[in-house]
Amino acid sequence: MARALWPVLLASAVGLLPFTVFSTYLVPIADEAGSGVAAMGGLRGLGGLAALLVGTALAPLIDRVPKEWAAAGALVALGASAALGAAGDFALLAVFCLLIGASTAVLNPALTAAAADRFGTGRAAGRAATLVTATQSMTAMLAAPVIALPALFWGWQGDLLGVSVVSLLLAAVFVARHRKRRAQEPDGADAADREPRLGYLASFRALGAVRGVLPLLLVALLRTAVFMGYLSYLAAFYEQRFDLDAGLFAFVWTLSGASFFVSNLLTGRLTNSDRPRVGTERMLAVGLVAALVSVVGFYFTHWLPLALALTALHAASHAIVAACVVSLLVRRCGTALRGSALSVNAAGMSLGVFAGAALGGAGLGLAGYPGVAVVFGTLVLVALGATVPVLRAGRSAGAPTGTDTA
């Protein structure tokens, strides 16, 4: 499967690199632009805003064009924005942040849907989709050290120019692969091209009519808010409670990233196997329970080994939920709507990033870390409530929970 999807997996990794470069080299980038670090860091929010708006607005269009074309167009925009960012001008860096957010809002759902489309509508499609998300989580864990080595030779500008070149080459690969597949089809169109095209508003209505989809999207938003808010204050927590400096905290970050990657990869395989021992919907609920226990317990522990164990458990539980949400969206929506569903899901996650940081900060300001535990625990409880209709939708499909409900 990985061999067949190598361009998709590589593109999903490349899509995470521009903002990783931006975050890693924020101080020298700010110096180059003649700006303060706070002002430059604030530009990152433009990307999240663009991702939210573009992801929602273009969601129905992802399923109305070939996925390879959508991915290629997003990669061209990604490459152009990386090249603009390398110029180091403040205004161009603002455009860089906007374009990166907008392009990844199209790129990520297009890649995930393209991977799933290659394997139809069954469990193999869900496994392909979660392989893409697992690759992204692995990239997030390894990207900083990977970009740091070449930057020793050509600086952060060279990193961005390298991303630009690779993005444009991958765009050409996607166009060529689509043309080759069309030429191999007897009627000149692939299976996705033959799907009936829904109107713009009809796509949203059809998506809302699929049982269990709206609760899944809510779960994804809330899960992202909890996890990203938790990560926003993770370094501060370890520094204040355990006196860990930035160097030692790097190991904590690696532990969290590795736990997320392994859990996401294994969950995608297990829940999308031919005979899963635990159904996907039930695995979703299990992941949320683990997230609740770990996030609440984490903020009350004063023993470093236990805090590390809860950090690993929390990351793994979120990976379980993320893999289950993607698998269920892919299997339930089919080729006609999965691109729209994944795009709305990505937009909701962008909103969750901002909501999590804001709500976690409010809890911290009002009641310290116990307040953070209450805020994030409440969000997980709401997500658990949203899984009830998901479980019912799975049972009403006419088979035991966890079977393919596409």
What are the main properties of this structure?
14 helices, Growth Hormone, Chain: A, 406 residues, mainly alpha, globular
Uncertain ranges: 188-194, 398-406
Q: What is the CATH architecture term of the largest domain?
A: Up-down Bundle
The CATH superfamily of the largest domain bears the name MFS general substrate transporter like domains
Shape: globular
Percentage of residues in strands: under 5%
Which whole number gives the mean pLDDT?
83
Number of helices: 14
Global Rg: 21 Å
CATH topology of the largest domain: Growth Hormone, Chain: A
**Main beta-sheet annotation:** none
Report the structural category: mainly alpha
Order of helices and strands: HHHHHHHHHHHHHH
Number of extended strands: 0
Please tell me the total number of domains: 2
CATH class of the largest domain: Mainly Alpha
Distance between the termini: 21 Å
Q: Which percent range fits the helix content?
A: over 70%
